[in-house]
Amino acid sequence: MDTTESKIFETAKNVFIRSGLEGARMQEIADEAGINKSLLHYYFRTKEKLFKAVFQYAFKRFLPKADELLNSDLCFEERIRNFINLYIDLLLENPFIPSFILCEINRDPEGVIELFKGLGSNPMKFDTLIREEVEQGNIRQIDSKQLIVNILSMCIFPMAARPILVPMIFNNDPRVFKKFLESRKKEIPDFILKSLVIKE
Amino acid sequence: MDTTESKIFETAKNVFIRSGLEGARMQEIADEAGINKSLLHYYFRTKEKLFKAVFQYAFKRFLPKADELLNSDLCFEERIRNFINLYIDLLLENPFIPSFILCEINRDPEGVIELFKGLGSNPMKFDTLIREEVEQGNIRQIDSKQLIVNILSMCIFPMAARPILVPMIFNNDPRVFKKFLESRKKEIPDFILKSLVIKE
DNA sequence: GTCTATATGGCGATAGAC
DNA sequence: GTCTATCGCCATATAGAC
User: Fold this and answer.
1) Could you report the per-residue pLDDT of B95-118, keeping only the tens digit for each?
2) In chain B, what residues touch A105 (CB-CB under 8 Å)?
3) Which of A76, A170, B21, B36 is deepest in the core (most CB within 10 A)?
4) Given an 8 Å threshold on Cβ–Cβ distance, is A153 in contact with B149?
């Protein structure tokens, strides 16, 4: 579509990716979309609403897939691998999400929580899945919450910390970092599964 | 010391812990310290300088210990355990650090990097340590940078994501979350070391 | 050193003409 | 629907009396 609304939406997405929620300026979005600042308000009322529209659009495509995955009959290893694959893909396509959440979380925690719940996100499903695997002796004894947080950490943190990791660890080369993130689709599941194996 | 300056410093630390950098208001700090807003500027020039003073003070006590650890003659396992212990203690005592860095990173990346470099932080020492361990066959083959980022992720992310983790995963009970973080001093090294073990 | 009062600037948001 | 002009707020920062 080539409507003004969709033009705004696309541009906003790019600006949010580049600058985050706080960093992004309505003026900036307007300039880049080649329209007037007031039009942003005409279509989206407030900056926050505009952001949430962008944010929700990204997540709306992710959550159903994640849900489907959790309800599938794949083995644990495949679920972990697929889930992390899905998650990292989501974040690579929408790199503004981690920093948005981690910044917004301090300003308006309830808002963020509502955002998630409104989308139907329910991490406790993952919790019971892990408990079952432990009970059935498929993986070693581990606190399910520790594992969940570990997984989320390893997926989300590197995206949020990108601006500091690139210069301090990746020689200021964004392409190397991009490859690094790509390879995490394999590295993270490997890392986790090796840790969960029950040794003979 | 009971000088006005130290009173400001202590109060600012608490407010930053509670509200983060963006969330903290100069007025709030002044009120809580029982002094006038202008005095903050008298002693620290700007809000940012005040924050950096607090921030650097926290890190100044950490980095030398971390450095000492890396140069010690402990075995790899003990170094990992001690390092993570140290790191989580630092973050528990200064829970504003993760969200500060992750927010500030977007607003002023160079500033944050300078901050670290100015303190003498050098993560590449850790990098060579890991490479050596792999070469010597003490741990399995793994990309050193992947491992470093995994460690940092698992230590830092949960602190930054606290306001969303507590209601969504920990039943809104901060004490449970506190215990969760405490036990990560053991859980994270266990998790990592189990993953790095070379299987017979 | 400490206060009151005020300046300054940025940015989101709105009014209102066309 | 789209624009120009402007409001209103808030937070940092400063001037200047005491």
Assistant:
1) 878 887 887 777 777 878 887 888
2) 99, 160-164
3) B21
4) no
Q: Is the pLDDT of residue B4 over 80?
A: yes
Residues with Cβ < 8 Å from B118, sequence gap 6 or more?
A: B56
Distance CA B32, CA B65 (A): 32
DSSP 8-state secondary structure symbol assigned to residue B138: S
Q: What is the DSSP letter of A197?
A: P
- Of A85-94, A181-190, B54-63, where does mean pLDDT reach its minimum? B54-63
| CB of B6 lies under 7 Å from some atom of strand C | no
How confident is the model at residue B154, as a pLDDT?
A: 98
- Which site among A157, A176, A196 would you substitute to test the B interface, given the most B Cβ atoms closer than 10 Å to its Cβ? A157
Q: Is the CB of A37 under 7 A from strand D?
A: yes
Per-residue pLDDT tens over the stretch A87-108: 999 999 888 788 878 877 777 7
* Angstrom distance (rounded) from CA A108 to CA B39: 29
